[in-house]
Amino acid sequence: MGRGRSQAQQRKEAEAAARLEHLLEEADTPRKEAREALRLDRAGRHDEAIARADELAAKHPESAVVAHLAAILHYDATTRAIDAKDRQGIEKHCNTARDFYIQAKRLAPNCVEIAIRLATARLRCHNDGEAEPEIHRALAIPVPTDPAENNVAYDLVGGKSTSKDRLEKVRKLALDRRHRIVSYVRNKTIPDDVRFVLNYARSEGVAKTVKPAKELAERYYYSARAHLTHAYIDLEFARGLAPGIDKRPFLSRILTQLNNVANQFETSLVLAMFRAKLSFLLGMYIAMTAECFRAISMEGPADPWDDDVPPGSVPGEKSEDMVSSICKELERLQKKLAVVAIDYWQSLTK
């Protein structure tokens, strides 16, 4: 009896082990299939590889490995299309790569490598302002996972590397990529988009530009220059109103919009100057005086070159010169207030 029970127990254990092995094989199937698709790409059969990756993504929608591979292949296809000046190819693959990276990030939120690649992909996409925030989010991941877990490219790499090695390497990559992305967004992407909005206002009229200016501020919500462009266009709209229309409600709304984001850009002298001038026009002299004093005495202000609207409108070749120029403008505004006060006092004594 004991021997029979032992054999029965062994059979049960063997069956359980077989079932477990089967489950493991099923779980590993997406990775194996993704690996074969990557081999197609490495063999130069790019279109076949992309088609296969797309099929796998539809077949395994909850696989981060598959989504990551599909994103990589579409991103590489975008690069080839850019090199070939193939506009249709760029449009076909660019947004698809980003969308697959977004899917992969959802499935593997602690993978720094996926987050880095997503930030880089977003930099290429038209009207996508999330590249800079995305790379900051990548560096803020508290407990990152081994990059090899969600990237079959590591399966085809010879040699040995540890999880620690891979994490250190991807961390260095994130730091380097952050510098490049932030520099490109601040010095190229946002200024170009701001100039486009301003040129559109000149060619199509300010009224038609109010909506694009608002969309610009929403897209680059982390940029003082984007919010100031929105305010600038709204102010131009108010200036264009008929002489008999009271402009104060429009100016008040613009000031409220800037006040709502002021805490986000406490070191922006350009924003401070804009708020001070609006406060002066609205007769809010205490608020104007306080903002002028805060700005003039500010330590470590942001470089006005990053914020001014239109870009390059603040005089000065160097950052220090531009800061000095804004402070002088604020001092002139304070003198105007003194003139207003004198006129008011004289009117009382007549």
UniProtKB/TrEMBL annotation:
Entry superkingdom: Eukaryota
Name of this chain's protein: Uncharacterized protein
Organism: Oryza meyeriana var. granulata
